[in-house]
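Give me the fold.
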Amino acid sequence: MRPTRHGSTKAKICFCSSTVEPIFFEYGFQQVVHTEYENRQRKTVILEIHEMSDPGAAFGIFSVRSGTHAAAANLGQEGIAGGDYTMFWKERFFVSLAGSDSSAECLQTIDILAHAVDRKISEHGARPLLVEILPASSLLKRKYVRGILGLSTVAVFDDKDIFRMTEGAVGLYRDHNLIFLKYGSADEAGNQFAEIGQQLKSGGRFTEYKIKNNIISCKDRKNQTICFGQSGVNIVISISADQDIALGACERGAVLLRAR
């Protein structure tokens, strides 16, 4: 494939472009390179390289964009490939490639470009520590969030940001989801925990609100139980269709964070 006039052989760098989705800015966006390749049959492959503010931001974007069904790919620090697309993260970069179809030519071009970009990024970064604390047993997927947009890929609690956390880690398990939200201090977490309780109680989105042993529980519109607890600088949230599983996950999460 040859580059199109739109993508050109010269990479087009966009700074804070209006085409960049808001969630990238929530994590910490620096710049993006968008290049399009096209052959004579007008089959195209689009390559985008997003430079984020730090490795945690790159991992976070990858974690919320990569889904749960695509196959793992040996690219970057973590990658996936599914159908006509591939994406991976490495150091502070999030890389995505998409073909106009799943033809052999498109897939081959995606593979060549992906490995070429991977080789060019020589450094590695670490996943955020909060993500590594999530219980590993039966973990299906982990996500890293820095605001309401990332968190909304897991659950919508309110139309506005009622959490205002510094960062968050999400673990998706077979029978529940577990969320750790981190704050600047235990006092800040405690104040936010109290405010969250008031919002849940009066917001109208949740029912069966109760608090026992410093754990708030309520039901959402899907009849799932959601539990909230505080552990030092963190707030723990668990979600499950089974009330006992939600409560147990919240309690164990709080104990796990206290041990750190």
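The chain has two domains: 2-120, 129-258.
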